[in-house]
Amino acid sequence: MAVAEELNFTRAARKVGIGQPPLSNQIRDLENEIGAALFRRLSNGAELTEAGKAFLPEARAILLQAEQAKQSAIRAARGQSGRIRVGYTSSAVFNPVVPAIVNAFREKYAAVEFSLEEAPTAQLLERLERDELDAVFIRPGSGDGLQVRCRLRAEDPMIIVLPERHPLSEAQTLRLDALAGESFVLFPREAGAGFFDDIIAACRRAGFEPQLAQSAPQITSIASFVAVGLGVSIVPTEMAKINVPGVRYIAIAGEAPAARLALATRRDERSSIIRNFTAQAIATQKSLANNNQTAE
Amino acid sequence: MAVAEELNFTRAARKVGIGQPPLSNQIRDLENEIGAALFRRLSNGAELTEAGKAFLPEARAILLQAEQAKQSAIRAARGQSGRIRVGYTSSAVFNPVVPAIVNAFREKYAAVEFSLEEAPTAQLLERLERDELDAVFIRPGSGDGLQVRCRLRAEDPMIIVLPERHPLSEAQTLRLDALAGESFVLFPREAGAGFFDDIIAACRRAGFEPQLAQSAPQITSIASFVAVGLGVSIVPTEMAKINVPGVRYIAIAGEAPAARLALATRRDERSSIIRNFTAQAIATQKSLANNNQTAE
DNA sequence: CCATGTGATACTTTTAAGATATCGCCTTCA
DNA sequence: TGAAGGCGATATCTTAAAAGTATCACATGG
Q1: Total domains in the fold of chain A
Q2: pLDDT below 70 — which residues of chain B?
Q3: Residue A118 sits in a domain of what CATH number?
Q4: Of A89, B37, B128, B172, which alpha carbon lies 20 to 30 A from A243's?
Q5: Enclosing domain of residue A284
């Protein structure tokens, strides 16, 4: 029936592989059942009535839903009670909550088909709205679309990285503005725009404009660049666990800048799988926070 | 199919009013199409497989959506949902029937998306024919296209406005030709050509050519211009309700000029939404007329 | 061990969907 | 203006899919 959008009964009938009279009958029967005309018959074809215009997208939705029903049955038969496609921006993995969430979910819902992809925040949001991803870990920026809902918020505290030979490298803590005159080793803004902007903003709040020197290809290689004396930097505290010879990590005194992290899903999401994922995310974050408290 | 939740083929078949063998066949065919078993056949009945469990809610959703599709088509056919784009010429709002119609329609058909635009009569008619507007309140002039149909006709009676200091300002009523030698305060013809022409025509019928003096920027500011002595004018009776100090409103004796008002739609209009709008317009006009009669 | 209830199978009947031929209507182009 | 061609509606016939009937095979439970 969704084929009569052709606006010509004869051609539409040919398209579905039946004759024109049976199609006319089908439409007549359908109109009788509904109790309203869907098409206005003209001398040179047909056009949709208001009712037809309203009915067409619904009809399409039904066909789509039928296909989904079939697919979900097939997946269930394979022992997979569903699928979730998770995206993350590269810097998100520095917050240990992200891998923890993913592991916890995969363990708890082993039957769910799980796919994971890395892309910049902006692209993640785009793909989320295009229904190509279901949940994305992002660095929230200014204009995150209204179509998404952020269900988890966390912050990655940062830490200063200095070369061993640096005059300040023996300090226990440093205020951020101690780095005012230094050259900064950062990463290409495209590799993590939200994260990048958070760092710059933190420096500005500390009262100086960071001087960007050499750019490291990835966030993980910043420490190596610092080690060979290309400048100083600030990185997520988590990265201090990676032992890079030739650098010193120094806690930040005063206002500690932090990179914000969020888990975004579609605002109108109804799938229970995805809801389970966000619930798992929140639970994992809480349990991780508790562990840290007790460990310290 | 959503009936096999009964967990017993025989009873389920009875429930849908067919025999057990046909139901078995239907389910076998469906399972073949999906490529997975939906039921596990037991000696004493049947139970849902994982695939079946996943399929059942989807199947229910399809039936629900089919019903929704039907309902939304019916609503659209009744004109209870959809969109209507209404235009009006600026002076139309002086006739209280226009806002009354709009309010009554929006209240009665709250689900209909309603847009309202102001433009000169000529432009309204043009946009009506180009299918950019659906119904327009206009001041009908000479050559209103043949493609439109006027479904409502009303008249705005007019009233004379004089400055308080004017020698005639104490009169109870005045014939229009008493203003023959006066300077008239009107408005730019572009602000309401049909209305403007109605005023000029009324003067000519009264036997004189009005002398146009200062032009007020809008119709509503005519009274203020009159108050400061820039001339006399005639305005819709409705405007006498706006209390402007320094003016006197005086009823017109003899042939009272009136600005004509019409509601135009496309001649070949079929949309029930728009028909509902014109019907509501006529009804509102009637009820308003009755209220006035009883009130006086 | 047989009565009972389950779904599957084989076959017939019925119904509804599709094919064919034709009609009436309107547009269009000569 | 009038014949041709394209449109959907209608009538009738044909066919294929759904439903009905009878029966089977297999469990279970008294």
Answers
A1: 3
A2: 141-147, 152, 292-296
A3: 3.40.190.10
A4: A89
A5: 82-153+260-295
Question: Measured in angstroms, what separates residue B269's CA from nucleotide C30's C1'?
Answer: 34
Same domain, A34 and A171: no
**Is the shortest CB-to-strand distance from A41 to strand C under 7 Å?**
no
- The answer on A100 and A53 residing in a single domain is no
Give the angle subtended at the CA of A68 by the CAs of B6 and A104, to the nearest 5°.
Answer: 95
Protein CA at B184 to nucleotide C1' at C27, angstroms: 56
If you compute the radius of gyration of chain A from its CA atoms, what whole number of angstroms results?
Answer: 28
Nucleotide nearest to B20 in CA–C1' terms: C7
Tokens of A206: 């500390």
**A–B CB contacts, 8 A cutoff, strictly below:** 102
Identify whether residues A254 and A265 lie together within a single domain. no
Domain match, A92 and A238 both:
no
Partner-chain residue, chosen from A58, A73, A74, that has the shortest CB–CB distance to B68: A58
> Cβ(A49)–Cβ(A37) under 8 Å?
yes
| The two three-digit tokens of residue B17, written as one number | 């009013």
Distances (CA, A) of B207 to A137, A138, B189: 81, 79, 21
State which nucleotides on strand C lie below 7 Å from a protein beta carbon: 5-11, 17-21, 25-28
Note whether B24 and B56 are same-domain residues. Answer: yes
- Tell me which of B57, B78, B99 is where a domain ends: B78
Q: For residue A172, which amino acid is it? A: Q
Q: What is the CATH number of the domain that holds B38?
A: 1.10.10.10
Residue B238's closest CA among B78, B137, B96?
A: B96
**Rounded to 10 degrees, what is the CA torsion of B215, B220, B223, B228?**
-60
Q: Are B108 and B280 in contact (CB under 8 A)?
A: yes
Examine the domain organization and report whether A106 and A250 are in the same domain.
Answer: no
Model-level pTM? 0.62
A51: nearest CB among B35, B54, B77: B77
Distance B268 CA to C19 C1' (A): 37
pLDDT digits (tens, 9 = 90+) for A152-178: 678 888 899 999 889 998 999 999 989
A148 and A193 part of one domain: no
